[in-house]
Amino acid sequence: MKEIPKGKEITDCITKHMDRRFLNSLDFVGNGTIPLTIDRIELVDMIKYDNGNTEANAKLCYFKETVKPLVLKSVHIRAIVMATKSSVASEWKGWTIGFTAEEGRYFGKDQFAVRVDQKFKATKGK
Protein backbone atom coordinates (compact mmCIF):
# COMPACT_ATOMS: atom_id res chain seq x y z
CA MET A 1 0.00 0.00 0.00
CA LYS A 2 1.27 3.45 -0.90
CA GLU A 3 2.14 5.59 2.11
CA ILE A 4 -0.04 8.63 2.81
CA PRO A 5 2.13 11.73 3.01
CA LYS A 6 2.07 13.75 6.22
CA GLY A 7 0.08 16.94 5.81
CA LYS A 8 -0.56 20.06 7.83
CA GLU A 9 -3.62 20.13 10.08
CA ILE A 10 -6.26 22.64 9.02
CA THR A 11 -7.70 24.58 11.94
CA ASP A 12 -9.09 27.70 10.23
CA CYS A 13 -11.84 28.20 7.66
CA ILE A 14 -11.74 25.27 5.24
CA THR A 15 -12.61 27.44 2.23
CA LYS A 16 -9.26 29.24 2.54
CA HIS A 17 -7.65 25.99 1.40
CA MET A 18 -9.82 25.33 -1.65
CA ASP A 19 -9.45 26.42 -5.24
CA ARG A 20 -11.78 29.38 -5.01
CA ARG A 21 -11.59 30.22 -8.73
CA PHE A 22 -14.57 27.95 -9.38
CA LEU A 23 -18.06 27.69 -7.89
CA ASN A 24 -18.57 24.70 -5.63
CA SER A 25 -21.16 23.40 -3.20
CA LEU A 26 -19.88 25.58 -0.34
CA ASP A 27 -20.98 28.63 -2.32
CA PHE A 28 -24.55 27.29 -2.20
CA VAL A 29 -24.94 25.44 1.14
CA GLY A 30 -27.46 27.21 3.36
CA ASN A 31 -28.50 29.64 0.61
CA GLY A 32 -31.39 27.72 -0.91
CA THR A 33 -31.78 28.02 -4.66
CA ILE A 34 -29.69 30.74 -6.28
CA PRO A 35 -30.81 32.00 -9.71
CA LEU A 36 -27.85 32.45 -12.07
CA THR A 37 -28.01 33.77 -15.64
CA ILE A 38 -25.78 32.02 -18.15
CA ASP A 39 -23.39 34.39 -19.88
CA ARG A 40 -21.34 31.88 -21.88
CA ILE A 41 -19.87 28.40 -21.98
CA GLU A 42 -16.15 27.95 -22.60
CA LEU A 43 -14.16 24.81 -23.38
CA VAL A 44 -10.74 24.75 -21.71
CA ASP A 45 -8.15 22.21 -22.89
CA MET A 46 -6.77 21.61 -19.40
CA ILE A 47 -7.49 22.94 -15.92
CA LYS A 48 -4.96 22.44 -13.16
CA TYR A 49 -6.60 22.79 -9.77
CA ASP A 50 -4.77 24.22 -6.78
CA ASN A 51 -4.56 20.72 -5.28
CA GLY A 52 -2.62 19.49 -8.33
CA ASN A 53 -5.46 17.54 -9.96
CA THR A 54 -6.13 18.20 -13.62
CA GLU A 55 -9.19 18.04 -15.83
CA ALA A 56 -8.99 17.83 -19.61
CA ASN A 57 -11.63 19.36 -21.87
CA ALA A 58 -13.32 21.19 -19.01
CA LYS A 59 -16.54 22.99 -19.80
CA LEU A 60 -16.87 26.23 -17.82
CA CYS A 61 -20.22 27.95 -17.39
CA TYR A 62 -19.91 31.68 -16.73
CA PHE A 63 -22.76 33.63 -15.17
CA LYS A 64 -23.69 37.31 -15.17
CA GLU A 65 -23.96 37.38 -11.36
CA THR A 66 -20.48 36.11 -10.45
CA VAL A 67 -16.95 36.08 -11.84
CA LYS A 68 -16.45 32.48 -10.74
CA PRO A 69 -17.49 29.86 -13.31
CA LEU A 70 -18.98 26.47 -12.60
CA VAL A 71 -17.11 23.48 -14.01
CA LEU A 72 -19.92 21.66 -15.78
CA LYS A 73 -20.28 17.94 -15.24
CA SER A 74 -22.61 15.72 -17.23
CA VAL A 75 -25.32 16.00 -14.55
CA HIS A 76 -25.33 19.81 -14.95
CA ILE A 77 -25.35 19.62 -18.73
CA ARG A 78 -28.30 17.20 -18.78
CA ALA A 79 -30.27 19.41 -16.38
CA ILE A 80 -29.54 22.58 -18.38
CA VAL A 81 -30.57 20.84 -21.61
CA MET A 82 -33.85 19.83 -19.94
CA ALA A 83 -34.45 23.36 -18.62
CA THR A 84 -33.62 25.16 -21.89
CA LYS A 85 -34.91 22.47 -24.25
CA SER A 86 -31.68 22.81 -26.22
CA SER A 87 -28.34 21.03 -26.41
CA VAL A 88 -26.78 23.99 -28.25
CA ALA A 89 -24.61 25.82 -25.72
CA SER A 90 -24.93 29.20 -27.45
CA GLU A 91 -28.71 28.99 -26.98
CA TRP A 92 -28.23 28.77 -23.19
CA LYS A 93 -27.01 32.36 -23.07
CA GLY A 94 -29.49 34.54 -21.18
CA TRP A 95 -31.26 31.66 -19.46
CA THR A 96 -31.67 32.03 -15.70
CA ILE A 97 -31.37 28.66 -14.01
CA GLY A 98 -31.69 27.86 -10.30
CA PHE A 99 -28.68 26.19 -8.67
CA THR A 100 -28.56 24.68 -5.21
CA ALA A 101 -26.41 22.50 -2.96
CA GLU A 102 -27.93 19.04 -2.82
CA GLU A 103 -27.01 16.69 -0.03
CA GLY A 104 -26.29 13.13 -1.04
CA ARG A 105 -23.73 10.38 -1.40
CA TYR A 106 -21.16 11.41 -4.01
CA PHE A 107 -17.86 9.65 -4.69
CA GLY A 108 -18.54 7.32 -1.76
CA LYS A 109 -18.98 10.13 0.77
CA ASP A 110 -21.96 11.94 2.27
CA GLN A 111 -21.54 15.53 1.11
CA PHE A 112 -23.09 18.35 -0.88
CA ALA A 113 -22.90 18.83 -4.64
CA VAL A 114 -23.97 21.68 -6.91
CA ARG A 115 -27.13 20.75 -8.74
CA VAL A 116 -29.73 22.43 -10.93
CA ASP A 117 -32.93 22.82 -8.93
CA GLN A 118 -35.52 21.04 -11.08
CA LYS A 119 -38.34 22.84 -9.25
CA PHE A 120 -36.97 26.26 -10.24
CA LYS A 121 -38.75 27.79 -13.25
CA ALA A 122 -35.95 28.54 -15.71
CA THR A 123 -36.55 31.66 -17.77
CA LYS A 124 -35.02 33.13 -20.91
CA GLY A 125 -34.07 36.81 -20.71
CA LYS A 126 -33.75 39.22 -23.59
Quick summary:
The protein has one helix at 74-84; strands at 34-48, 54-63, 66-72, 95-106, 109-116, 123-124. It is mainly beta. It has one domain (14-124).
Structural commentary:
The protein is mainly beta and 126 residues long. The protein has one domain. Helix content is 9%, strand content 43%. It is built from one helix and six strands; from the N terminus they run βββαβββ. It has one helix at residues 74-84; strands spanning 34-48, 54-63, 66-72, 95-106, 109-116, 123-124. Strands 1, 2, 3, 4, 5 and 6 form a six-stranded antiparallel β-sheet that branches. The N and C termini lie far apart (57 Å). The model has no long low-confidence stretch (mean pLDDT 90).
Number of helices: 1
User: Which residue ranges are poorly predicted, with pLDDT under 50 across at least 5 consecutive positions?
Assistant: none
Give the SSE order as H and E letters.
Answer: EEEHEEE
Q: Specify the biggest β-sheet.
A: 6 strands, antiparallel
Q: How many domains, in number, for the residues? A: 1
In terms of DSSP E residues, the strand content is 35-45%
Mean pLDDT: 90
Q: Any idea what the shape is?
A: globular
Radius of gyration: 16 Å
| Structural class by helix and strand composition | mainly beta
Number of strands: 6
Bin the helical content: under 10%
Distance between the first and last residues' Cα:
57 Å
